[in-house]
């Protein structure tokens, strides 16, 4: 992968001086066009061999572009603190909104490569982490992010000479510590691991650009020119939604005999008020004990509630969190995305709320909006919600692998019961704020929602994060059921990891 | 993943009888439209739980469609014979050409799932095999193949009852052996592994369709209807070449200072005729010994020659194979694809020649035509050759993992030397057949080819299958160099595996 960067490249001073002004002007123009269009974000990854000029390139690019619209972040190998959340969490935090840029010095490649070189990860784990990166980058590109992946290379001899020179110069000696020296000793191992990383992640949507790092003028000009071409192509490309899937109608077929999951539920189950009070207290007690279980310090909890309007999500969440210390949990209600959120990949706003170990988050509606309301209302394209199942499964797998327990509830009511509750809301003064014309409009789309729920459960109820579908016509029975199911599910997940 | 197939579905006899005739007519019409267009192939995968009606469905589909345009194949777990070639080889053999269909009873999912259930593969290896399948299916779809992936499900109770019924009936008792009984005992493990397989391979381009297998009428109608919708969408979709990449110009940038890999070579190396004869004999002897090395019985050898016109590929191959027993090797010259080959994914015609263990194949030009002549001449789109690097790397990785040694040579000559050889061909009577107007036309595109070679080496020279670029202005020196390099490379690969 590094063949042409092994040839020594060079640009003479005069050429460099002559070329830079025009390049800078063009870069700024392209950056502003990106900003004005606000249709795509651009992320620059700066990776490569120690001493190959990565840090200098970051500074140069920030000098040539307008740094007010660039977020520059450095990433190193993961620390203990980083391990309290899923690996990709920290990268989600720095994704630029549409129109903006980010320059990442070190990236999601750094830790996998270093961990492989130092033997912390075996070949299989390394391959899996690279596969996760492929998946992540494909998702970013599908969401309209342009990836510019730089790899700055130095041949072995040059790497050794460069380290010596840096160590000898009092102005730069601080940059060479025991770590840099250890890295150099493993130069060959680094090349083997990097070769595999670059090979497996050079997708057509996100290719690598390898640059010989020896000559500063060559390096800067090569990086600047490539970045310019990617910026210009980002500005000229059609908006991401216009990209089509290879085969049109992969939309899931409706059940042939009309029998859906929701219709097959038993909605007749009831519990008396008296028994409810007793059971509620029991399961709340159990839930409280679980939140203080020592093993929960290494785990976190995400509870998702979805359901038709008036299914009882809000009141159930209130009973649930009543079991917990206020410092332990957070309730996140999800409405239509705001402007900031629309400028990001759709999973972005959910990544933000992922709890650290020892904490819980309850979502009142969630990322499943993509395959429910956005699908039914046509807020996103068929291709978008079809790929969302896959992306959601990958997302939840990442959460669970990082120790998050993901419990998902669909509160299922019948159309008749919904009608009864709507009417009650209209006639009860303190409930009138809870019913809007939109609720009535959604109700008319009941069959479409029912199909969407069916497809959602079929495609995202997995061993890793199963759906719990609970009949909710009787609110009391449903609440007990939810608390009991949650307790048992959390218990099972804790036991499994031991 | 199996939620809605756990609900018992049913179609009554009268409805079935009323619906089937129209469905059959529509299926045949769609099949013939596919055939006439000859733009896409369609592959049906039949997978699922034992006794869920997979075999019956294969028969029904063959009865409803015109079986003359369908290739039906059954695949079971891999046998020792299968392990003599890369895993995916046997599936490449049965891919239907454009316009045709294939029905695969059992598929590339069967062996990974069974191997996982019986503990032959650990979790990491299972995940890697699923990832390979994702990659394979994405490639198929990009090449215009439509995938119809059926999973026939039976709940545990129904699976047990069905097995009992089959065993009790003398007409079907033969279908239930110790294997089927062992599978049933591991029903839960099968569901866990299948859940992971379906979840990780439900890509938007190739979704799974899960069908409740209990009721024959429901099963047939559900499968037939879904197949019909996919056939119709295959016919209505635009040809695959029209599908665009999300971001336009990801084309690799040319080297900034104009210094290419090929120009950096030392073309001045020479060897005397006398020394050449001696060295040739030595390395041919070495190559012969290697072909008879006991370890080669578990390995196979693929040698690839690429180079500009008149670089000396043919004459070098003759010297190379002179070292071998005629039963050991095969030389495969690659020209422009014929009609049959154009009706298949571009890697198809190369998969066909992959040698079994203990054999060698020498390619005179190869799959690299995709990123050389097809790129330069515009025979395929930018998106096509850009994704080819990734597909070729995955292909070669599969070969090497299956024990194939892949040695790739680029024979590099200078433009001056090519001109000298062209002139010599024109003036030497017995060489005149070797020079055509096309050779002169290609020569005019030298700079484009040089860029294509540079990108090819940068993107496909990997630890798994590196490129050997050999200066070839002196034919004698080059031949010795090729034989020596090949011997040493094969030797290293044999030693590495021990």
From TrEMBL, chains A, B:
Which keywords does this chain's UniProt record carry?
Kinase, Transferase
Q: Does the keyword Transferase apply?
A: yes
List, alphabetically, the Pfam families matched. PPK2
| Entries under SUPFAM superfamilies matching the protein | P-loop containing nucleoside triphosphate hydrolases (SSF52540)
Q: Which residues form the Polyphosphate kinase-2-related domain?
A: 11-233, 271-493
Q: What is its EC number?
A: 2.7.4.9
Q: What is this protein called?
A: Thymidylate kinase
């Amino acid at each position: 992968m590094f063949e042409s960067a092994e040839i020594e490249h060079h640009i003479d001073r005069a050429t460099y001086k002559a070329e830079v002004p025009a390049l800078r002007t063009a870069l700024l123009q392209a950056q502003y066009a990106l900003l004005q269009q606000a249709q795509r974000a651009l992320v620059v990854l700066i990776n490569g061999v120690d001493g190959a000029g990565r840090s200098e390139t970051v500074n140069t690019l920030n000098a040539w572009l307008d740094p007010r619209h660039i977020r520059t972040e450095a990433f190193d190998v993961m620390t203990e603190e980083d391990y309290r959340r899923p690996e990709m969490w920290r990268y989600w935090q720095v994704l630029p909104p549409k129109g903006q840029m980010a320059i990442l010095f070190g990236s999601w490649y750094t830790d996998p490569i270093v961990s492989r070189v130092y033997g912390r990860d075996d070949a299989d784990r390394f391959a899996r982490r690279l596969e996760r990166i492929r998946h992540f980058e494909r998702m970013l590109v599908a969401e309209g992010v342009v990836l510019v992946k730089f790899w700055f290379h130095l041949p072995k001899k040059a790497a050794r000479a460069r380290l010596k020179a840096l160590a000898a110069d009092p102005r730069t000696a601080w940059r060479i510590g025991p770590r840099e020296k250890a890295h150099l000793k493993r130069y060959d191992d680094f090349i083997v691991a990097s070769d595999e990383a670059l090979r497996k992640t050079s997708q057509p949507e996100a290719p690598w650009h390898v640059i010989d790092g020896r000559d500063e003028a060559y390096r800067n000009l090569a990086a600047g020119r490539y970045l310019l071409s990617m910026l210009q192509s980002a500005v000229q490309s059609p908006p991401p939604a216009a990209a089509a899937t290879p085969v049109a109608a992969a939309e899931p077929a409706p059940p042939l005999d009309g029998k859906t999951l929701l219709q097959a539920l038993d909605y007749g189950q009831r519990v008396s008020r008296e028994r409810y009070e007793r059971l509620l207290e029991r399961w709340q007690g159990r839930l409280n004990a679980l939140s203080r279980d020592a093993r929960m310090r290494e785990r976190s909890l995400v509870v998702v509630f979805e359901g038709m309007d008036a299914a009882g999500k809000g009141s159930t969440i209130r009973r649930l969190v009543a079991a917990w210390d206020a410092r332990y949990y957070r309730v996140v209600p999800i409405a239509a995305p705001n402007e900031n959120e629309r400028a990001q990949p759709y999973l972005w706003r959910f990544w933000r709320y992922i709890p650290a170990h020892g904490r819980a988050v309850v979502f009142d509606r969630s990322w499943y909006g993509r395959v429910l309301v956005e699908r039914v209302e046509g807020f996103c394209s068929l291709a978008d919600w079809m790929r969302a199942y896959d992306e959601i499964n990958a997302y939840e797998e990442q959460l669970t692998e990082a120790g998050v327990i993901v419990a998902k509830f669909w509160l299922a009511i019948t159309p008749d019961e919904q009608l009864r509750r709507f009417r009650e809301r209209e006639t009860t003064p303190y409930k009138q704020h809870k019913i809007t014309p939109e609720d009535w409009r959604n109700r008319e789309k009941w069959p479409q929602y029912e199909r969407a729920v069916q497809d959602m459960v079929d495609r995202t109820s997995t061993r890793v994060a199963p759906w719990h579908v609970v009949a909710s016509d009787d609110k009391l029975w449903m609440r007990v059921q939810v608390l009991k199911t949650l307790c048992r599910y959390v218990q099972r997940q804790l036991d499994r990891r031991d």
